[in-house]
Amino acid sequence: MAKKRRYHPSVADDLSAAVSYYDNISVELGNRFRASVRKRLCVIAEHPQSFARIHREMRATMTDRFPYAILYEDRAECIAVLGVFHAASDQAGWFTRSL
Length: 99
What we know:
By secondary structure, the chain is an alpha+beta fold.
């Protein structure tokens, strides 16, 4: 059974910036990015232990066909989604978020 997800408040901004970038190239590309993120979030909810730990309890997985990582923690009560980051961004900033 899929776990419930809770989102860090900045996840909406992360997604908005990425979607805006892809929408400016092509609305279809933006739609594909959205679908890729949704699909990966569903996989995380169903199989949260499937992806590698990258820092303490934080795990990450890449979106399909896009250079974005989804960072999360698998907690007893939920999946805590901490961010959606471009793979080439400053990774030191990835580890500062918590719920």
